[in-house]
Amino acid sequence: MIRFRHLTLAMLGALAFAPAAFAQDASTDSASGKRFAIVGGYALSQPTKNPQIGGVRADVDGDGAPTLSASYFFNDNFAIEAWGSADKFGQRLNSNGGKIGSVDSQPVALSGQYHFRGADSIVRPFVGLGYYQANYSGETLRSGQRLGVDDAKGGIATAGVDLNINPTWFARADVRYMQGSKSDVKLDGVKVGEAELNPVTVGVGIGARF
Questions:
Q1: What pTM, to 2 d.p., does this model score?
Q2: CA torsion through residues 77, 81, 87, 92, sign
Q3: How far is it, in rounded angstroms, from Cα 26 to Cα 48?
Q4: Binning pLDDT at 50, 70 and 90, where does residue 54 land?
Q5: Burial class for 23, CB neighbours closer than 10 Å (0-12, 13-18, 19+)
Q6: C-beta of residue 180 within 8 angstroms of C-beta of residue 198
Q7: Computed over its alpha carbons, how large is the radius of gyration of the chain?
């Protein structure tokens, strides 16, 4: 919860800064017609469901990681975006109030997006739908048993807003929801349950278009 509060403050700071910076830019350049955009940012991921491991319900903590995205704009409004975490989300597994293990996840996604309003508008909301895959690795249990979690695959929905600083630079805030297939959970190679984490990520970033 504290991390989400810090991320919210960062988003509000970007909202306060972007209009003033845009107004001070005297360039005759325009964002319209620029076809490529890249964004570097940071996101917090929080699972919305918890897995069963050997008949025991495990609570999975959220975590933060840097993210990267690259987009190609077919015109000023329609784009395709490749997005993913640049590092792994390290997630702690808990049961009965104590840590029982951990697992790392690293999602990547490809989405189609629609960006509302004109390319030079200061505030530009956008939405997207696509496909994602999350790789799970580094699975450990304090019991010493060998834990394995299959990769998750499924749909991803995105909603966000770009705040134009000038025709090249912009700030971004977004929310992504991943609805994945159930992943088999194995102990020492034997299936003992299923994981369907369906995480929500909340992120902020700085982007450039060219």
A1: 0.83
A2: positive
A3: 45
A4: low
A5: exposed
A6: yes
A7: 19
